[in-house]
Amino acid sequence: VQLVESGGGLVQAGGSLRLSCAASHFSFKDYSMGWFRQAPGKEREGISCIKNSDRTTYYEDSVKGRFTISMDNAENTVYLQMDNLQPEDTALYYCVASYYSGACGAVPVMHSYEYDYWGRGTQVTVSS
With 90 as the cut, is the pLDDT of residue 26 above it? Predict the structure, then answer.
């Protein structure tokens, strides 16, 4: 199993980035996909996920209205479009995959232990 993130970088506040996660060596269509992030000195937090079966999405409150998750089964890729980025969005962003159908959807929070596979992360830095 491999999850490879790309698209991170340095951007000014108010700018945009699009993260991509290329998945391989597992049945992508059977998994929910998502993104966690971890800022220095802070706990890792789940910010968005998408359920492949019905494309139900979840967004953590701090990114709702600014971030959009999508997936392309033909390309085995999940995307995170991040708009109006703020300095507090600075973090290492991880792509994740879960076979558990309850990991994403009508959930109040994403639990890291429900995600089977993790990428190595891509750094997002937002300057003020």
Answer: no
